[in-house]
Amino acid sequence: MNQNGFESDRQEEQALEESYRAQCEEEDARRAYEMEYAENDYRRDQAKATMPNDRISQSRLAERLTKFKEEPVMSKTLEDVRKAVYASKRHSAWERGVQTYALELLDNLQDDPDGISASPATRKALFNGADSWQQYSEGGCSLVYDGEIAERLCNPTELKKSHGGERDPNERENWIDLQARALSQAERMIWKCIRA
User: Fold this and answer.
1) Per-residue pLDDT tens digits for 117-137
2) Beta bridge partners of residue 116, listed in sequence order
3) 180 φ/ψ angles, rounded to the nearest 5 degrees
4) How far out from the chain centre does Cα 17 lie?
5) pTM of the model
């Protein structure tokens, strides 16, 4: 009798264990389904947010595209752009450094008889084979040594604070990152001078 009692208890425990496992598997499957459903909802909402789906926004988009196509392409000679960059206001060491980078970037461009325009081809020529200003900076297309970058972009106080470039400029960037940011601003300065 005792053995039958133990066997029945063991069978009951196994049955409870199996039902518990089945409940857990069912719960996991339900959670996975809910997560997938929620993810699909999120993607659908993101797609709706980025796509103009009403007539007003589509008409505005069409107006903008038409306006963009009708705008004349601004072009200037390389020498005119260089003069405009050189004549731009520069009060701080940072602005003088950005201006110097802009003048160096203009050296990457060839003088075209039609002039220089704010186009993807001009941007590609400015990048000199790089995909981004970060890659341009890391690839050695501009200054390489931290001390040189610090001398170009810092005023004397900041230069002393960074020990001539031995310390990072701030806790978020190193000198190469800072140079990439300056190169990006130099590119904007060039576009501004072309469009002016």
Assistant:
1) 878 888 888 888 899 999 999
2) 76
3) -60, -40
4) 53
5) 0.63
Buried b (16+ CB within 10 A) or exposed e, 72-82: eeebbeeeebb
Q: Count Cα neighbours of 173 within 13 Å in the Cβ-side half-sphere.
A: 16
Rounded to 10 degrees, the C-alpha dihedral 19/20/26/29 comes to -140
Length of the chain counted residue by residue = 196
Could you tell me which residues come within 8 angstroms of residue 193 by beta carbon, excluding any fewer than 6 positions away? 76, 81, 84, 85, 88
User: What is the b/e burial string over 58-70, where b = at least 16 CB atoms within 10 angstroms of the residue's CB?
Assistant: eeeeeeeeeeeee
Torsion of CA 25, 29, 35, 39, to 10 degrees: 150
User: Domain boundaries in the chain?
Assistant: 2-70, 75-195
Q: Which pLDDT value is given to residue 63? A: 62
pLDDT tens digits for range 156-178: 999 999 999 999 999 999 999 99
